[in-house]
Amino acid sequence: MDFSWLVGLALLSIGSALTFYDIIPTSYESLIPLALFVLGYPVSRPGWKDGKILVEPTIRVHIYPHAPKPPRALAHTHLRTNIADPKTIICYDPATGRHLASIPAPTPADVAEAYARVKRAQEKWAKTTFEERRRVLRSLLDFIVENQEDISRVAVRDSGKTMIDATLGEIITTCAKLRWTIDNGEQALADDYRAPGLLMMYKNAKVVYQPLGVVAALVSWNYPFHNTFGPLISAIFAGNGILIKCSEYVAWSTSYWSAIMRTCLAVHGHDPELVQFINGFADVGEAIVTSGVNHITFIGSPEVGKKVQLNAADHLVPCLLELGGKDCAIVLKDADLGQVTSVLMRGVFQNCGQNCIGIERIIMENEIYDGFVKDVEARIKELRLGSVLDDEEGVDCGAMTMGTQNDKLETLITDAVSKGARLLVGGKRYSHPRHPSGQYFSPTLLVDVTPEMNIARHEVFAPIMVLMRAKDAEDALRIANTCPYGLCSSVFSGNSRLAEQLCLRLKTGMANVNDFGVNYLCQSLPFGGVGISGYGRFAGAEGLRGLCVPKAVTIDKISFIKTSIPPPVDYPIKKAAKGYGFVKELVRFAYAPQIMEKVKGGLGLAKASL
């Protein structure tokens, strides 16, 4: 029986206790109790059924009760949505189709006003100390830990995921980022002294990391809590204010997230306008890009990311683009299949596959391929879909947050089967018997996929396990590197050195040996990809520094030793030849590799100075 998880839990407990012990002497007295309350979100409670069920719900239509009637059996609880209304965002639970709210969509004018508010607040915030910023983040961390169930339920209701997926993807990741930033952020942004070089040996040279000002984040819908708070944490710790454009697909939860952060700032005496949460459609995103912000973090698709980049280029606004992935897991024949199977099931089906670093391609050596297929086929067939807030027990996977992708997914699967792939489980949208308006896709197993198939080259963001055969490790590496995406990757092998070597040869921004996605829980590491997965990094020191102006500064080491201009090169220059001879000998003295050349250079300098 495998007890490795128990050992890991014990180590985690010890580490957590040591971390707490470390911070008590310096931080306990500065913690201010956070008087936050859950904003009366009864909608997020299990069993809530007050919302009308929408028929074929979408976010861009208005609820219209006089539309053609639904079936007689459902007439008392269902409404049809059929009139386009660009001024309203329709919020509904993807797992049930229940209407949550109709929210007015902001306009570009609203964006301009929000920018003005955050800009005023940031001018004050930039003057705060790191300790003042830590106090805000400690209170935020404290609130999240104490209210994790409420936060998870709000995220579940808005996105359709399960409570387990919410806790793993929303809570733990955000807490890890807060913990690292609180413990290490100041060190990452401390003045960075550099070697001045021989000619400037009388100077101190350093990099000072100063706030950019107002930055923006345009984030995706798959983790509505974490995707908004991740960029926010780094931005405000670096001294910036931030405009956050939350996805219109999870607009309902935004007011809750905003209230948490605004209260955190207010209880510590800071302007809550420092952080602005904004919903809206594409026009709002475009308005944010051109509003005057000094940096943009975008999390989304390559197609939309290119448009953001083009609009930002007109204003010379730097961008960080995280554009998704088609992450591979290479499994060699000496891998521990007992561990691998469970890790890959989580890697594929966590959050119903709606993960930027989810496993979308499993590339496996022939010797273990058929046995693995048999094992996972049985496990995938047992996966149960549903609404965890309504169905309680018996739910493994939640809903698809975007209900518009099913046609695309079914087309990709049909194309692969037509080219020789075998569909063993699922492969189509799922009509839930209890939630006919819910947005579900059947957990799917597709095997014998080859690199030229469309499904091997396009991100699916869905509960689809794709298996590909490889002859050996080199063949697996070749297959993995044929994909244009390059976000994260995994290599499983009993030979850790070989696995690491393969990781270093994969064309990805991140890699894990015998694991999946854990690099993101190591918040000291930068997060980002290559290829069409984008560029730039968030998380780690690189992420914090990317939200700063790295200002180069020189200072005299000794006050009375200053730069003076030698007479041969002092304007007006008396003799150009002599001046040139002086700088030529200076180069030889400073940079010639041989000692005798340096001596000659020194003598030449003395002669030219006479």
Largest sheet: 7 strands, mixed
CATH architecture of the largest domain: 3-Layer(aba) Sandwich
Integer tally of domains: 3
| Percent helix | 40-55%
Level-1 CATH class name of the largest domain: Alpha Beta
Give the termini distance in whole angstroms.
85 Å
The Rg value, from CA coordinates, equals 28 Å
Q: What is the multimeric organization of the chains shown? A: single chain
Mean pLDDT: 90
Question: The CATH topology of the largest domain is what?
Answer: Aldehyde Dehydrogenase, Chain A, domain 1
Low-confidence stretches: 1-40, 62-83
Shape: globular
The strand line-up of the biggest sheet is 15-18-19-14-13-21-22
Pfam families: Aldedh
InterPro entries: Ald_DH/histidinol_DH (IPR016161), Ald_DH_C (IPR016163), Ald_DH_CS_CYS (IPR016160), Ald_DH_N (IPR016162), Aldehyde_DH_dom (IPR015590)
Protein name: Aldehyde/histidinol dehydrogenase
GO molecular function, one term: oxidoreductase activity, acting on the aldehyde or oxo group of donors, NAD or NADP as acceptor
Notes on the protein architecture:
There is one protein chain. With 610 residues, this protein is of the alpha/beta class. It folds into 3 domains: 107-190 and 210-323 and 543-549, Aldehyde Dehydrogenase, Chain A, domain 1, CATH 3.40.605; 327-484 and 488-527, Aldehyde Dehydrogenase, Chain A, domain 2 (3-Layer(aba) Sandwich), CATH 3.40.309; 564-609. It has 18 helices and 25 strands. The strands form 7 sheets. A 7-stranded mixed β-sheet has the order 15-18-19-14-13-21-22, with helices on both faces. A 6-stranded mixed β-sheet has the order 10-9-8-11-12-24, with helices on both faces. Helix 3 crosses helix 7, helix 4 crosses helix 5 and helix 17 (576-591) packs antiparallel against helix 18. The radius of gyration is 28 Å and the shape is globular. It starts with a helix and ends with a helix.
